[in-house]
Amino acid sequence: MLNTRNFTHQSNVYFGCTLFDRDFTAFVQRVSLPGMSFSNIEMSKMAVKFYAQGDTPTYNPLSVDLLVDSELKIWREIIQNFQIMTKQGVGDNGMRNFDTFIHIFNEKDESVVKVDFKHCILESIGDLEFDSSSEDSELIMSLTINYAYFEFDNKVKMRNSKDIIEGYRKNTFIKHLGVNDVK
Length: 183
Prior knowledge:
It contains three helices and eleven strands, in the order E-E-E-E-E-E-E-H-E-E-E-E-H-H. By secondary structure, the chain is an alpha+beta fold. A six-stranded antiparallel β-barrel has the order 1-2-7-10-9-8. A two-stranded antiparallel sheet has the order 3-6. A two-stranded antiparallel sheet has the order 4-5. A hairpin with a 2-residue loop joins strand 1 and strand 2. The longest helix has 13 residues.
């Protein structure tokens, strides 16, 4: 489904959110679209135990790996903004909920699915690993995000995919930070 384009140029998967008081999108190297589970309720009737389906889903966290530029501008901006938001030494963090999305396109740049995640909160920012054994390894930053629920955005099928992709590419962290290469 996904193509194998040059990772320094394009990606068929985009991550986006409104955070740090602005909209941004980033190229995705890997994403796990999350599942959900329901807690079963144990019940009994006339000495027979049975289970009833729970009515509240528990969503698995969203895990996404973002491509990072060779100058680490993307990584640095995200880390610094979250450090500012956590108000070090106060014991309270000023982080607020945000909404995010994952938008996946096929090799013909046609929209496959757009998933909107609502009321998100950052769970973790993964380590940035450097590998000196390979010249062409890309830098990846992992994010784990918890959220209240997600919805499928069915309106994107009605819009021109090329316009959507161009908009994402104009608003990427890469463009915002003036980064020319992503490795």
